[in-house]
Amino acid sequence: MLKICVCVSGGGTNLQAIIDAIESGKITNTQIVRVISNNKGAYALERATDKGINAVAVSPKDYEDRESFNKAFLACVDEVAPDLVVLAGFLVVLPPMMIQKYTGRIINIHPSLIPSFCGKGYYGLKVHEAVLARGVKVTGATVHYVDEGTDTGPILLQKAVEVLPDDTPKALQQRVMEQAEWQILPQAINMIANT
Fold first, then answer.
1. Are strands 84-87 and 106-110 parallel, antiparallel or unpaired?
2. Measured between alpha carbons, how far is 164 from 170 in angstroms, rounded to an integer?
3. Measured between alpha carbons, how far is 189 from 55 in angstroms, rounded to an integer?
4. Which residues are catalytic?
């Protein structure tokens, strides 16, 4: 049984996709042992609690400095001894000590086809704004392993999504989530759980 810890910052739509995939059998041999958010008001925490999943907020605002927060965050992950850490819309730079400790056991979903529109400053709606500003015709999402760089780890899965002429950043974001993110993140977890 693959024990996963899912880290989220906001609404938790990718978390919901994982929960739904486990319930429907699209993801097998997997259990969510904890959901962690850096945001106490994240709806993702409510989604987890509603399903009986342990949910914890570890907010940087509660710590005097980044190092104290990083230690508390890592301790919160370590406490449940996950086999895999899943970053599902987690807008926190992971501390190097965590990346080293969990090398090859952290995955992230990014809302573009890496290496395009990724790296420092590319997150959330900013990615889709950049896609539209550049005028590309195809975007998508990528699941990749996390390393010390920003969006530089080995790629597991990618899925393309068409950019439509009348797209707004929000409309494109929604389509990328529905057609790519919510598909390939559960698929990647299932692959890892069953290999």
1. parallel
2. 12
3. 19
4. 110
Report yes or no: 184 and 14 within 8 Å, Cβ to Cβ: no
User: pTM of the predicted model, to two decimals?
Assistant: 0.96
- In angstroms, the CA 34 to CA 127 distance is 28
**Cβ-Cβ contacts under 8 Å for 112 (sequence gap 6 or more):** 118, 122, 127, 131, 139, 140, 141, 142
User: CA nearest 45: which of 11, 77, 92, 21?
Assistant: 11
Q: What is the pLDDT of residue 108?
A: 97
Q: How would residue 169 be classed by pLDDT, with cut points 50, 70 and 90?
A: very high
Which residue pairs, CB below 8 angstroms and at least 24 apart, start in 103-106? 103/147, 104/145, 106/145, 106/146
Q: What is the CB neighbour count within 10 angstroms for residue 159? A: 16
Burial class (CB in 10 A: 0-12, 13-18, 19+), 122: buried
Instruction: Give just the sign of the alpha carbon dihedral 82, 87, 93, 99.
Output: positive
Query: The tokens of 160 are what?
Result: 């393309």
Instruction: Compute φ and ψ for 86, nearest 5 degrees.
Output: -110, 115
